[in-house]
Design a protein that fits this description.
Length: 416
Amino acid sequence: MTVHTPSQSSSLDDWLCYIEGVHPSTIEMGLERVKRVAEQTQILNTSSKIILIGGTNGKGTTARCLESILLAQGYRVGTYASPHLIHYNERVRINGKALSDQDHIDAFYMLDTGRGDTQLTFFEYGTLGALAIFKRYNVDFILLEVGLGGRFDATNIVTPYASVITTIDLDHKEYLGDTRELVGYDKAGIFRPNTVAIVGDLDIPHTVTDYGQAINADMVLANRDFNHSVTLEGFKWQYQNYHYEFATPTIPIQNVSTALTLLAKLALLPAQEVITSCLASLTVEGRFQCLSDTPKVYTDVAHNPESARYLRQKMIQLKSQGFKIHVLIAMLADKDKASVINEVSGVVDIWSCASLQGPRAEQAENLRALLPLQATCYSDISSALDNIVPMQPSDTALIIFGSFVTVAQAIEYWQK
């Protein structure tokens, strides 16, 4: 079959369809092909300082925290994140703002003409495209979220100014292994010799520190070198001579603590009042995002056990305010669904399940079979919300979660 190659005047949708189909696999581990194309197109010839951000959960919120505080000091910042919720453009930000379609089209066109006969996956195109855009805009800092693992992820072709691991838990077990030690070893692959490496996980597997010591990375570790503690009105963060206290942010405190430590280590931490202002205005789409106050509706991208544990704490807070918890769950079939459900089941009063669409989608009936209580099944998110929301009592909070796809559909439903 002949594949039609888009041009610079083609639409972004045309390009996304093209790069999705040009490689036979969705994921192909290894860096050789990506490095080759990066060298051929010279996109790594940049003076920008690159911060690699890996971890099972918390990459997006950590990056958003770093972005906000760096921007507040006048730096130019490029941020690369995945996946997106609604529009592809969400994946690349310059100074906190998404870019035009044409910026992405120009980057993809340059890559496609420069790659020769080297095949790239969708994620590899996206990563190289983001790096090309950051080079063009000549940003001071690049915040690069690692996609899968670390060692063989496309982002790991760069020479980082610093590396961060937020948390380590089980996800993508078919690629990264089925123990935290194996996952941690893979994620530690983003460390470099004599380069700052911040680890925010509160129970760091020995494989991470063993690897860091073996290559002489400049490691700064949670619960050894820095820590945080929850207070009645917020949290305290401590690292070296820094002893700061802040109000409770909208993102996980652990990720704020990790971000602040990185900035302090790199001598990029501003005055406390600047940080306070940044944290007060910090929001991240899809992370316990409030869609409605009346009725009370939240959505969250939690899709693995660790993120479900954090979501459980948010549910407990709602229950302490007198709310019952109604969960609408929709997940992908290749996730650890039973463990995710087990993490939150003790605080859920009412369950509903919805099917997703696509090759990785899980059906509502299969989710219902894993639940401890009776549940109503729906064919999709939209029909579920059509039925649930009009009948939702004022004393009940609806939590819609299970995947990025689930959150995207919930947000789109509310926007309509």
